[in-house]
Amino acid sequence: MKKVLVFGLCLFPLLYIVVQAASNQLGPDGGKEVVLYFGTWSMQFLLVTLAVSPLSRRTHLRGLLRYRRMVGLFTWFYASLHLFSVLTVLLGWSWQIFLEEFSERPYMAVGILAWLFMVPLGVTSNRFMQRRLGKNWKRLHRLVYFILLLACIHLIWLVRSDFLEAFLYSLVAAALMFERLVFWLSRKKRQHPA
After folding, report:
1. What are the residue boundaries of the structural domains of the chain, listed by start?
2. What is the pTM assigned to this prediction?
3. How far apart are CA 141 and CA 123, in angstroms?
4. In the predicted model, is pLDDT for residue 194 greater than 60?
5. Which residues contact 166 (CB under 8 A, 6 or more apart)?
């Protein structure tokens, strides 16, 4: 029942934008709004996914870990919607425009690279692949840290004037990575005391 509730909450941003679009509430440049909307939600889901483990450790709510995979898959889902909306709304599926934009806007290349690295994580986010890959599954899924770095670069590079939002996202990302570093160092110290 709890998983159904979390699934519904994760799906809410999509339902919201569909209702907004159906009732013509997206403003004069609705296509651009959709692109930014899905980009924002994919970044937020990425940060939430990475916040699950430290939150679980700090609060001792181990049950939170059951939802990490689902939230991670929704990160990929919203990132895919973001990419799809860019290709549809901004580029019109024209490969000529795509190549022009790709060369003129390097942040687009960084964003696409981040999405490409999400693909193997999404495809292997099931128990069958976890068992099949064994220890390599954890190694593969550490790519999420590189994806976070690329997402922050994409966001910072994309911003033209108001850097506050990009700065706040990057600050949260840095805090999450710092927490992981501290946890890793303390665990290593426990395993190999001086």
Report:
1. 33-191
2. 0.90
3. 11
4. no
5. 152, 155, 156, 158, 159
